[in-house]
Design a protein that fits this description.
The protein is of the alpha+beta class and 302 residues long. 15% of the residues lie in helices and 33% in strands.
């Protein structure tokens, strides 16, 4: 129940909404180049590209929902329920658990073309980070400053598709969604996957570009507003209200990561390049916080 957006018209931006019934205490996490990444079935990565994104920290390890590395390559993981097919380990392939894919790719690749080379050798597994956290069915939007692709684990293997729209939502697969794009200004309502896909694609194509870099960031969040889910509009099967927990926007040219949350709509930012990137320790900023309201005071009118 999420939407990822990639835009290259002026600014090179990449981000997503995360729509869930609860927050897992997400933080914006900077992983420096010497933080040791371990993998269940691959050699550890003791030196890699630095990255920034939103993650849940589990036993000192960042489980990224979305991130961008220092070269401007970005990935977002979105739920792919009833469609994702993870396989058993295969000889001759790079066997990687689904929760490991973001650091596995961002740690080694500088652009989409390099990511595709690695992904064609990758076999995604249903291994979990912990017995209490079973593998989530996922697919991914992967993008750099000029190109986006969709990676979807299906029965026949990992399907890699150029995504010229720069939009991805949830189940069913990407091709199913593109069949609904013959829309006009009479856009579909609701918050299902297809409706959000169509609205985001339309908004990204038609929302005007006005002004400089700050206006481009604002524009991105306005596009994301077309799929923003107010609390209670949708519910889980057990009746829990779903909401857009956060919206992210990464500038792929500058390495700056912007975000808002449901409880604080002020745009906040962190710059990857303004932090030390050669260390071993994670750098974190909690996303939690209340609405930041700017109180104004009127003055007599002349």
């Amino acid at each position: 129940m999420c939407t990822a957006i990639h835009t290259v018209t002026r600014a090179k931006l990449f981000g997503r909404t995360l729509d869930l019934e609860t927050s897992y205490g997400e933080s914006v996490v900077i992983t420096p180049r010497a933080f040791p990444f371990s993998f269940l079935r691959q050699d550890p990565m003791t030196r890699h590209a630095a990255m920034i994104g939103t993650a849940h920290l589990f036993e000192g390890k960042p489980l990224y929902y979305d991130a961008v590395n220092e070269y401007g390559l970005a990935i977002a993981a979105l739920r792919f329920a009833d469609c994702a097919v993870y396989r058993h380990p295969l000889s001759g392939m790079r066997n990687v658990a689904s929760f490991e894919l973001i650091p596995w790719i961002l740690g080694q690749c500088t652009d989409v073309e390099e990511a595709l080379v690695l992904l064609r050798q990758t076999n995604l597994l249903a291994d979990s980070v912990h017995p209490s956290l079973p593998a989530t069915p996922l697919h991914w939007l992967i993008a750099d400053r000029g190109r986006a692709v969709t990676a979807e684990p299906l029965a026949e293997g990992l399907r890699l598709t150029d995504n010229i729209l720069g939009i991805l939502t949830n189940s069913p697969d990407f091709f199913h969604h593109t069949a609904y794009l013959a829309v006009s200004e009479a856009l579909p309502g609701g918050y299902g996957s297809v409706a959000r896909f169509c609205r985001a694609a339309y908004a990204e194509e038609h929302t005007l570009h006005e002004g400089g870099p700050a206006e481009e960031i604002s524009r991105f969040f306005h596009v994301a507003d077309t799929v923003f889910q107010p609390c209670g509009y949708r519910r889980t099967e057990t009746g829990e209200p779903i909401r857009t927990q956060y919206v992210s926007c990464a500038d792929l040219s500058t390495g700056t990561y912007y975000f808002t949350t449901y409880r604080c709509r002020r745009i906040r930012s962190l710059s990857l390049r303004e932090h030390p990137l050669d260390g071993k320790r994670l750098l974190t900023v909690p996303m939690a916080g209340d609405e930041d309201v700017l109180a104004l005071k009127a003055t007599p009118h002349a």
